[in-house]
Amino acid sequence: MMLRSLAFALPLLVAACSEHERASSSSYPSAGLYTPGSTLGASDPTDTPTEGAGLGNRCVSLPFGGTPDAGPLGAEGTLTLSYMTRSYDGRYAPKNCTAVWIETADGAYVATLELTAALRRPGLVFWQDGACTEKLGPDAVTSATLRNHDKLHEVTWTGRDFEGKSVPDGQYVLHIEITESDKEPGELNSFDITKGPMPYTMELPVALEGPLAQGTVTWTAQ
């Protein structure tokens, strides 16, 4: 099990989780957080990124072959994630935005499972850099920004990518991002998960003072 927790403050004006909408999410194309000219660090929608800035196109078909109607490449099943969050006293606490998505072990985007942000998506800077923001995935659940931390998040993944194609058995990375601010990134928690023929349940290790309060992952193979 691997936990990679990133919680740090940067002097960025990230338009996101505030009460005041500055622009639609289309005003902020996905770009690298640390790249000069990136709109992820802009509070003014007239700011535009330098041509070619960012991590490139994340909406890249995975090299697994098949079509959305093709049979599974590995075990069929459902991954269920249940988790709770808590405030870390961010700028707009207890209001918060969250994102849950899956990548391959080598960092290719697979699918988004949950997005609670609506037009405040640009504040989820790790998701913006790691996901195909135009194509979430067949299992994605979306909602507006949450007003507090009393929600039990329950999301599922049926083992398909953002194009609806079955992915093979193996190791994947589950990301959970939580933010309460539009001035600095929130926290990213990342966990190794397995898709395969064997069912399992695991408790996610969480930081004692981080915004991820608890989490459980269950893989049910069919």
In short:
The protein is mostly beta strands and 222 residues long. The protein has one helix spanning 125-130, and strands at residues 3-7, 77-85, 97-104, 109-116, 141-143, 153-157, 170-179, 187-195, 200-203, 212-221. The longest helix has 6 residues, at 125-130.
Describe the structure.
By secondary structure, this protein is mainly β. The protein has one domain. 3% of the residues lie in helices and 32% in strands. It contains one helix and ten strands. It has one helix spanning 125-130, and strands at 3-7, 77-85, 97-104, 109-116, 141-143, 153-157, 170-179, 187-195, 200-203, 212-221. The strands form two sheets. It has a six-stranded mixed β-sheet with strand order 1-8-7-3-4-5. Strand 7 (170-179) and strand 8 (187-195) form a beta hairpin. The radius of gyration is 17 Å and the shape is globular. 39% of the residues are buried. The model is unreliable at 1-56 (pLDDT under 50).
- Compute the number of strand runs: 10
Q: What overall form do the CA principal axes indicate?
A: globular
Helix percentage range: under 10%
Secondary-structure class: mainly beta
Strand order of the largest sheet: 1-8-7-3-4-5
What share of the residues does DSSP label as strand, in percent?
Answer: 25-35%
Count of discrete domains: 1
Runs in which pLDDT lies below 50 for 5 or more consecutive residues are 1-56
Order of helices and strands: EEEEHEEEEEE
Number of helices: 1
Biggest sheet, in brief? 6 strands, mixed
Radius of gyration: 17 Å
Write down the overall mean pLDDT: 78
Termini gap:
24 Å
